[in-house]
Amino acid sequence: xxxxxxxxxxxxxxxxxxxxxxxxxxxxxxxxxxxxxxxxxxxxxxxxxxxxxxxxxxxxxxxxxxxxxxxxxxxxxxxxxxxxxxxxxxxxxxxxxxxxxxxxxxxxxxxxxxxxxxxxxxxxxxxxxxxxxxxxxxxxxxxxxxxxxxxxxxxxxxxxxxxxxxxxxxxxxxxxxxxxxxxxxxxxxxxxxxxxxxxxxxxxxxxxxxxxxxxxxxxxxxxxxxxxxxxxxxxxxxxxxxxxxxxxxxxxxxxxxxxxxxxxxxxxxxxxxxxxxxxxxxxxxxxxxxxxxxxxxxxxxxxxxxxxxxxxxxxxxxxxxxxxx
Length: 325
Ligand SMILES: [Zn+2]
Hints:
With 325 residues, the chain is an alpha+beta fold. Helices cover 38% and strands 14% of the residues.
């Protein structure tokens, strides 16, 4: 980094990007930078990160005590200092509430790995730190185990995400990569089944990562390449069950859009046949053309696979019920 002023200017620029991307609302989020000599730049509290100017940036010491700037420092400084103290090679930390990523942190569902190459290289597996009250020392310490495992991007349960790197721009990029990834995952889940990259190909990515000098615990065999506890939950949870069409009940009342009519994913009885979706080409219904032409086989195969998965779940539940009784 050229100098203190340049670092302040870059913090303002990152704040603007965060705000423009919708990663923060109102005065949310905070950004910090290690100047060296026990001094750190940090964003002020109570100011929108979309409209910062270099004069707004505060300076704090190793304990978070303000030693420079006219506006009071961020209330979440302890989270940032935890990272700076634990990882001497890290110079920048960015914290925000990117909505797609935060959705995983709120649902408590691990972000699956081994799906997009860039994500594997730049971020790797993303842990979720347990919830604690923002701003507290206990909150700051929730990320400690993951820092020790060299995670550069961590989700904070019921809160948001924090990312770090050697420089400000990369710390911010991790948040951007994570949120785009989570957005793609959520979209993919609606389109069909999410497919993971085969493990040998993920190893190729990890080798590239190693050549680039980027850390990943999987490189040292500290954890399995494509297994992340809980990610199965997201990968398994998709549904190919078509949304039932608008069907009036016996009294002629509509039953809504069908969303509420969808069977829940946890072992609910299944309809005997799949709902019929007539194929429509150029605005005309094609007789007998259920499940849209060329994609019909794939759609049927997915639907059948999903149904058989549910059937296995039903039988398992029944067995558990019987043995418990
Ligand atoms: Zn926050």
